């Protein structure tokens, strides 16, 4: 649902994201986590919808389809930058993709009976981290905090695919990283 519960908000620092990448069993999981934590995509809806034709290597951008927001006029898709850390993982995923194979960047996990959460919990355990309240949502939330802090509001809203009102209500929080930056 869309209720607000501040106790479930959690910022996943980049140092923990790096530990997660190291604990991933394969490149597909590294790419899933990069799309969520660096790209700020909703999982699984947006992550699994990305096709190779949506990845524009030349312009360093990715076309994102959003089934969650498509009912709002003009909000069914957006274009995000291919942030450097995301590009690295996408290039590795592309190198492993079979020529003429699946049109999707993430070609596994397409079966709705498969449970991504259970597998992600194992990755978190292998990384030596404590689970946070909303595993995938908090990755997106963490990226939203960074983008809304580093870019003008209209840019952040366009890239994240949510409004200022939604960002303040569901995503934005004061993080330890922001506090440390302020003091020193």
Poorly predicted regions: none
Helical content (DSSP H or I, runs of 4+): 40-55%
The count of DSSP E runs of length 2 or more, i.e. the number of strands, is 3
Largest sheet geometry: 3 strands, antiparallel
Q: Count of helices?
A: 8
* End-to-end gap: 38 Å
Rg, Cα atoms, Å: 16 Å
Write down the overall mean pLDDT.
Answer: 88
Order of helices and strands, N to C? HHEEEHHHHHH
Look at the helices and sheets and give the structural class: mainly alpha
The order of strands across the largest sheet is 1-2-3
- The best one-word shape is globular
Q: What portion of the residues fall into strands of 2 or more residues?
A: 5-15%
Explain what you see.
The protein contains eight helices and three strands; from the N terminus they run H-H-E-E-E-H-H-H-H-H-H. With 184 residues, it is mainly alpha-helical. Helix 1 packs antiparallel against helix 2 and helix 2 packs antiparallel against helix 3 (84-96). The model has no long low-confidence stretch (mean pLDDT 88).
């Amino acid at each position: 649902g869309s209720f607000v519960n501040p106790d479930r908000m959690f910022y996943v620092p980049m140092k923990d994201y790096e530990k997660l990448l190291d604990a991933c069993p394969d490149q597909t999981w590294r790419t899933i986590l990069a799309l969520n934590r660096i790209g700020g995509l909703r999982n699984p809806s947006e992550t699994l919808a990305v096709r190779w034709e949506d990845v524009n290597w030349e312009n360093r951008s990715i076309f994102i389809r959003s089934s969650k927001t498509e009912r709002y006029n003009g909000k069914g898709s957006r274009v995000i930058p291919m942030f450097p850390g995301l590009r690295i993982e996408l290039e590795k995923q592309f190198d492993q993709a079979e020529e003429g194979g699946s049109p999707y960047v993430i070609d596994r996990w397409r079966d709705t009976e498969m449970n991504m959460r259970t597998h992600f919990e194992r990755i978190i355990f292998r990384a030596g981290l404590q689970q946070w309240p909303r595993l995938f949502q908090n990755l997106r939330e963490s990226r939203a905090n960074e983008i809304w802090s580093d870019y003008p509001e209209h840019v952040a809203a366009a890239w994240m695919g949510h409004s200022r009102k939604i960002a303040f209500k569901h995503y934005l929080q004061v993080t330890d990283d922001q506090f440390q930056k302020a003091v020193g």
